[in-house]
Specification:
Blueprint lengths: L2 H14 L10 H7 L12 E2 L5 E5 L2 H4 L12 H5 L19 H11 L3 E5 L2 H4 L10 H16 L3 E7 L5 H7 L6 H17 L5 E6 L1 H7 L16 H23 L1 H4 L2 E7 L2 E3 L5 H25 L4 H7 L8 H7 L6 E6 L16 E3 L2 H11 L5 E7 L2 E2 L7 H19 L5 E7 L13 E2 L3 E3 L8 E3 L1 H12 L1 E2 L10 E2 L5 E5 L16 E5 L7 E8 L13 H13 L3 E5 L2 H4 L10 H16 L3 E8 L22 H16 L5 E6 L8 H21 L1 H4 L2 E7 L2 E4 L5 H23 L6 H11 L8 H7 L6 E4 L3 E5 L8 E2 L4 E4 L5 E2 L3 E2 L2 H14 L4 E6 L11 H19 L5 E7 L12 E4 L2 E4 L1 H11 L2 E2 L20 E16 L2 E16 L4
Parallel strand pairs: 2-3, 2-12, 3-4, 4-5, 5-6, 6-8, 8-10, 10-12, 18-21, 18-33, 21-22, 22-23, 23-24, 24-26, 25-27, 26-32, 32-33
Antiparallel strand pairs: 1-16, 7-9, 11-13, 14-15, 17-36, 19-20, 19-38, 27-29, 28-29, 30-31, 34-35, 37-38
Helix pairs in contact: 1-2, 2-16, 9-11, 10-11, 16-17, 17-18, 22-23, 28-29, 29-30
Length: about 1000
């Protein structure tokens, strides 16, 4: 039983004998361990409910500025930023106090339905109490709400977002004092009365975990207290009671008329078990209880703290009286959840992880909240990521995290049935980021803090969020849907391997020993010392090599029509002299290709497979210069002639160079490789094609390069540039103009003062047109952005950087099926109707996963995208080769696995065979495709020859069976042996 299955079974047993409440969230880990992989991880194309809330938010101290303007009193953050080692302050922030119009303009551009902002308590009550009321501060919020109404955006108002009036901290000790319950209630009463007619969503307190633990425990945030380890729990106790008092006040006096809703914003991490044992799951549950459950359980369950917290902390945790429990319980009209780069995700130490691992997963957190707290409506009131402070308007990392969180919320609604009512992107504009000051930026709008007017500019994340809102999510487009249809009858279905198993010593008839067969005991063969059979007096036969038949059997079991593998140049011509080849190895390759043909599998043979680990060149060429040696191209052409001559009767598809377009290959080396390929192709075209009728080309590595911001020309151009440098580099001289891509030459010359090698007229004519088909290896897709973001490695020469979409399935390279379709279309657009083969396409997965569901998913979806390229886009696609056959030769990629000496057939093999049998994806109920039967291959043809036949004579006596081997000559119709 797998670890996942064992985990699920333990949980089922546990949950079967325990009340589902209050630990109903414990089933979350079990549920998601049973979700279909990787289908459940795939991106979901769907839309949000019609009444879904789309919001964006800010916090007062982060953006308002004007810290002494119009009568505002000091807050604990004004004091905190002036002490200790703090450098920057929020005195000006984003200056929203003076820029209402700019903020409103940004909000309107986004198209959100709601705007979450917080009130600065000290701006309304400078010393924290009603007696210090400040009309000018209140008018600022009246004006903001009125402007929001003008653009039909609903306010979501937070009463307290960490900026307590300093006077209350100095006189009472802030939230450590029980008196704060009454004072906060009075402040809330004023806000409800003053603004409540226009506000339907209220947040009383934002992220009480950070306020209590980091404000009064670790001292990382204001007021920066860290002397009493028990103080955070007393603070949390007061925060809960203050919230409850405000909720009851609203419920009694304002709800009947204003009809609003009130909650407390709770933030949490997500955590995964390091083991599948039940105790690890309970530790995960306890971790969430210490962060989220600390406040959520009193509000949503029974008015008391989680049992795990009580058991861990004992008397350190305050107790609620029965009356207080009733006062706190049920005081939340919706679950306001914060998730993202907040302080609750940086525990300062690992104590609250209980030995488990923190993880970023909004979907599982939403499910846990729904299960644990009896399916409350969940409003995600803060969500997003951040980029480093020197990032300006291009923020690809922020954008793709935003996409990830929104898509997880969508899955939570559509797949998991969680009642998510809204999503708030954080934040509207860049601002003061608490303990990180201005070191990171989280805004959808860039703020230039050095300019007097704090100009706001939309980032790419803002454009993305606006598009998502306009489309109400991610509606499925026709190109997202699986295609139905079939490939042509002559479509080449193949499987690739970097190499084959070679056994040059015959594995049959090589042992001259005589054995006894002990049939009365254990059936073992007992070797008779001193006895040997006479020599067979026979030349080697292809059948002598058991490994050949084993490999051919494995290949035919896949159901393919073609098999692609590579020869070993250095082993075939070890001295570099083609007149002295390794005839034994040549014979083995000849036998292997012949046996493939007999099994109706077409061999596709690569002459040289580029690898960073070794050159696979003959020793005389494997010097420092290697391909830079001007003799190497001609030596390669001579080697190609040898292979054509010796194997050409059986091989009709040749690959000269496999994936030579490696980033580590220099431009000078590439130039010689191109000449070598062309010389080898020309040799076949002139000397062998007429007699053998085969085809020759090379295979280029071609992962797709997608602009990170497809809606911006600034990223479209770098993506085109990378494709020119990675693929056009080899493709254009052969399939196009006979020279390197124009933009490649000009780019290197202008920006790097580099010149590519020059094709003289002779070489240009040699290289141009030296192909019979276009072959690519394709595995994954990368995002390309011109934005210079510190989170990624920037490539200065091409002025771009690679990145990934965090919604893509990883293993370890991203699984992006549509990238293959785009790559095939690139070939068609650049080189017209050239025949195209996908010569290698596969995914790396744990070799121990014999039920290789990721590979099953990968092959199905990539082949389906190839079908779209053929049927919908008109790409002249001739064949598809899955990579790879076996883990033994290509670890982690095989459709065959191996445990000790046992070969294991993985699930992907039967699934690939099923696709091949149907020649694609025919519509249900469609008539079977009628294809003419292929003629049987005639390899050597049938001839009348005398051959020795092996016979066995058995003698039985005294419980011992003696078998003698006899060689009998007779005349029979037998196939001509390969050598």
């Amino acid at each position: 039983m797998s670890g996942t299955a064992a985990c699920a079974l333990l949980l089922l047993l546990f949950l079967g004998c325990a009340d589902l409440k209050p630990n109903a969230g414990l089933k979350t880990w079990s549920r998601f361990s049973r979700r279909p992989y990787p289908g459940d991880k795939a991106f979901l194309y769907d839309t949000f409910p019609r009444d879904f809330i789309w919001a964006v938010g800010t916090a007062a101290y982060q953006v308002e500025g004007a810290f002494e303007k119009d009568g505002k009193g000091p807050s604990i953050w004004d004091t905190f930023t002036r002490g200790g080692t703090r450098v920057a302050k929020g005195d000006v922030g984003s200056d929203s106090y003076h820029n209402i119009n700019a903020d409103i303009r940004a909000i309107r551009q986004l198209g959100v339905s709601h705007y979450r902002f917080s009130l600065s308590w000290a701006r309304i009550f400078p010393n924290g109490t009603r007696g210090s009321y400040n009309e000018l501060g209140t008018n600022y919020y009246r004006r903001l709400i009125r402007r929001l109404k003008d653009i039909r955006v609903q306010p979501v108002v937070t009463l307290y977002h960490w900026d307590l009036p300093e006077h209350l901290q100095q006189t009472l000790g802030g939230w450590s004092s029980p008196d704060m319950v009454r004072i906060f209630s009075d402040y809330a009463d004023f806000c409800f009365q003053t603004f409540g007619d226009d506000v339907k969503f209220w947040i009383t307190i934002d992220n009480p975990f950070v306020v209590a633990r980091h404000g009064y425990g670790t001292g990382v945030v204001a007021p920066g207290i860290k002397n009493d380890p028990d103080l955070p729990f007393r603070v949390g106790h007061n925060l809960l009671k203050a919230h409850a008092a405000a909720w009851h006040l609203y419920n009694r006096h304002y709800r009947p008329r204003q009809r609003g809703k009130v909650s407390m914003a709770l933030a949490s991490h997500w955590i995964k078990p390091i083991h599948t044992r039940l105790d690890s799951l309970r530790d995960c549950q306890c971790s969430l209880d210490h962060v989220l459950g600390w406040f959520a359980r009193p509000l949503f369950t029974d008015g008391d703290y989680p049992p795990c917290m009580k058991a861990t902390l004992g008397s350190r945790l305050p107790s609620f009286t029965e009356e207080e429990r009733e006062q706190v319980r049920g005081t939340a009209d919706f679950f306001a959840l914060s998730h993202g780069a907040a302080l609750s995700f940086q525990f300062i130490n690992d104590s609250l992880k209980f030995g488990q691992q923190e993880e970023l997963d909004l979907r599982m957190l939403l499910y846990w909240v729904s299960a644990e707290y009896d399916k409350p409506p969940i409003f995600v009131v803060q969500s997003g990521w951040y980029v480093l402070g020197n990032t300006k308007t291009e923020d690809p990392k922020h954008m793709y995290y935003l996409k990830r969180f929104i898509s997880e919320a969508l899955k939570s609604i559509v797949i998991d049935g969680v009642n998510v009512i809204g999503y708030t992107a954080w934040s509207l504009i860049d601002g003061f980021e608490w303990h990180r000051e201005y070191g990171i930026r989280r805004g959808l709008y860039y703020v230039n803090f050095k300019t007097p007017d704090m100009k706001r500019e939309p980032k790419t994340s803002a454009t993305f969020y606006r598009n998502v809102i306009q489309r109400k999510g991610f509606p499925e487009l026709p190109e997202n849907r699986p295609a139905q249809g079939v490939f042509p009858c002559d479509f080449a279905w193949g499987v690739s391997a970097n190499s084959i198993q070679v056994e040059t010593t015959p594995s049959q008839f090589a042992d001259s020993s005589v054995y006894l067969w002990n049939i009365s005991n254990n059936g073992e063969l007992i070797r008779l010392e001193g006895l040997s059979a006479p020599p067979l007096r026979r030349s080697p036969h292809c059948a002598d090599y058991v490994t050949i038949q084993q490999q051919v059997d494995e290949i035919t079991a896949v159901g393919v029509t073609h098999f692609h593998f590579s020869l070993n140049w250095s082993a075939l011509v070890p001295t570099g002299d083609v007149s002295r080849p390794n005839t034994t190895l040549l014979g083995y390759y000849r036998c292997f290709t012949r046996q493939l043909l007999q099994a109706q599998v077409t061999p596709v043979v690569t002459l040289w497979h580029h690898t960073r680990l070794g050159s696979s060149m003959p020793a005389p060429l494997d010097t420092v210069n290697k391909w830079l040696n001007h003799e190497t191209p001609q030596a390669f052409a001579d080697y190609a002639r040898l292979c054509y001559r010796e194997l050409g009767d059986h091989v009709k598809m040749w690959i000269t160079l496999n994936e030579p377009n490696d980033e580590m290959v220099s431009y000078q080396e590439a130039h010689q490789m191109l000449r070598a390929h062309a010389l080898a192709w020309q040799a076949y075209d002139r000397e062998f094609r007429h007699a053998q009728g085969g085809q020759v080309s090379l295979t280029l590595y071609m992962d797709w390069m997608e602009p990170a911001f497809s809606f911006r020309r600034e990223d479209v151009e770098p993506a085109k540039r990378v494709l020119d440098f990675r693929v056009g580099w080899f493709a254009e001289p052969i399939f196009g103009s006979g020279d390197y891509p124009t933009c490649m030459r000009s780019w290197l010359r202008q920006l790097n003062s580099l010149d590519l090698p020059i094709f003289n007229e002779e070489d240009r004519l040699l290289v141009k047109g030296a192909y019979d088909f276009f072959a690519i290896s394709h595995f994954s897709t990368k995002l390309i952005t011109h934005a210079k973001e510190d989170s990624y490695t920037y490539t200065a020469m091409l002025e771009m950087q690679y990145m990934i979409d965090t919604t893509w399935i990883q293993s370890p390279r991203p699984v992006v099926p549509w990238g293959l379709r785009k790559a095939l279309n690139w070939v068609k657009e650049h080189y017209s109707n050239v025949p195209v083969y996908v010569m290698a396409n596969g995914v790396q997965e744990d070799p121990a996963q014999f039920k290789d569901s990721l590979r099953v998913y990968y092959l199905y979806n990539y082949i389906n995208e190839a079908l779209k390229a053929y049927t919908l886009d008109g790409v002249n696609l001739k064949g598809y080769f899955a990579y790879a056959l076996s883990d033994q030769r290509d670890p982690g990629f095989g459709m065959y696995g191996q445990v000790h000496e046992e070969v294991i057939i993985k699930a992907s093999l039967s699934n690939y065979r099923h696709i091949i049998q149907h020649n694609g994806f025919p519509p249900p109920g469609a008539a079977e495709q009628q294809c003419p039967r292929s003629p049987q291959p005639c390899v050597g043809c049938q001839v009348q020859v005398n051959r020795p036949l092996v016979g066995f004579l058995t003698l039985v006596g005294a419980g011992v069976l003696i078998t003698l081997v006899l060689i009998i000559y007779f005349s029979a119709k037998r196939q001509k042996e390969c050598y």
